[in-house]
Write a structure and sequence with these properties.
With 248 residues, this protein is of the alpha/beta class. The protein is 44% helix and 19% strand. The strands form 2 sheets. It has a 5-stranded mixed sheet, with helices on both faces. Strands 5-6 form a two-stranded antiparallel sheet.
Length: 248
C-alpha cells in the first residue's frame, strides 16, 4: 500500500484526519525498519494546455483483481470520467466488462453526479464506442450513436496511449486503481460503487491535484456553472424509453 492509500483508509475506517505528510513520514520509517519494498509507480505524461471550463470530459477504462468475501478473486472493471479543466472525477465499477449500454448508463449517472454535461467527450477507439473508422468516418455502436444524437455532445476518438489527448484520464485511472481499489475487499457492485462515491468526496476530488496544485472540488464549483444543463439529458432519456417501448 502507498502512504496516500494508508492515509485514505485512516479517514475511511477510523475517521482519522492525519496530514498526508505525517502519514508518509511514518510509512517511510516502517519501510526502512522492516525493509518493505516500494513498488514503482511511474507518472504518465500530462499535456500542459488547459481547456475552457465545461468544454471537455475524458473517459477511459481500467480493470484490476480484488480479493472477495468468499476467499476467491473478482475482476473489477472501472469506467473513469474526468472534467479536463477542474480535474473533477466520477467513476463507476462493476464485476463484468462494460458494454455499450453500460457505458451509456454510466455517462448518464456521471452527468447527474456533476449536475450538467460538457460540450465534448474524449474516448479511445474502443469497440463499445465505435464499430469502425473509414477515412475519418466513424461508425458508432447502436447504443452510443443514440446517446450521441440525443445528448448532442461532440465525440472525439483518439489513438490508444496518446498522452497529448488523454494523459489526464490515464493518470486518473491509475489514481482510482492505486488509491481506491488496491487491496479493497470485494463484496458486490452496489457496495463498491457506494464506497467509490464516498472516496470521491473524501479524497478523489478533495485532494490537491499534482499538476494544477488546486483542489478539484473547489475549482468544480465554478466550472459547474459552465456545464450544459441536464434538461437535454432528461429529454434524451425520455426519447430512449420511447424508442425501446418503455414508459415515460
Amino acid at each position: 500500500m502507498t502512504a496516500a492509500q494508508v492515509c485514505d483508509w485512516l479517514k475511511e475506517h477510523y475517521e482519522e484526519a492525519h496530514a498526508e505528510r505525517t502519514v508518509s513520514r511514518y510509512v517511510k520509517e516502517l519501510r526502512e525498519e522492516y525493509r518493505l519494498p516500494r513498488h514503482p509507480n511511474p507518472r504518465s505524461y500530462e499535456t500542459v494546455a488547459e481547456l475552457p471550463m465545461g468544454q471537455q470530459m475524458q473517459v477511459d477504462f481500467g480493470q484490476t483483481t480484488l480479493k472477495n468475501v468468499e476467499g476467491g478473486w473478482t475482476t473489477v472493471h472501472v469506467a473513469a470520467f474526468l472534467l479536463s479543466h477542474s480535474r473533477y472525477k466520477y467513476a463507476q465499477c462493476q464485476s463484468r466488462p462494460f458494454t455499450a449500454a453500460d457505458l451509456v448508463a454510466a455517462c448518464h449517472n456521471c452527468f447527474r453526479y456533476w449536475g450538467g454535461m460538457p460540450r465534448e467527450m474524449v474516448f479511445d477507439q474502443d469497440s463499445i464506442v465505435c464499430v469502425s473508422e473509414n477515412s475519418g468516418d466513424i461508425v458508432y455502436t447502436y447504443e452510443f450513436e443514440k446517446f450521441r444524437q440525443n445528448c448532442k455532445v461532440e465525440i472525439y476518438l483518439c489513438r490508444g496511449a496518446d498522452p497529448e489527448s488523454k494523459g489526464k484520464i490515464e493518470n486518473t485511472v491509475k489514481f482510482i486503481k492505486g488509491n481506491f481499489l488496491n487491496n479493497r475487499l470485494y463484496v458486490d457492485d452496489e457496495i463498491l460503487n457506494r464506497s467509490c462515491v464516498e472516496w470521491l468526496e473524501r479524497t478523489g476530488n478533495a485532494k490537491i491535484h499534482g499538476t494544477t496544485r488546486k483542489i478539484p472540488a473547489e475549482v468544480f464549483q465554478e466550472e459547474r456553472e459552465q456545464l450544459r444543463p441536464l434538461f437535454a439529458l432528461i429529454l434524451a432519456v425520455r426519447h430512449i424509453h420511447r424508442w425501446f417501448g418503455g414508459n415515460r
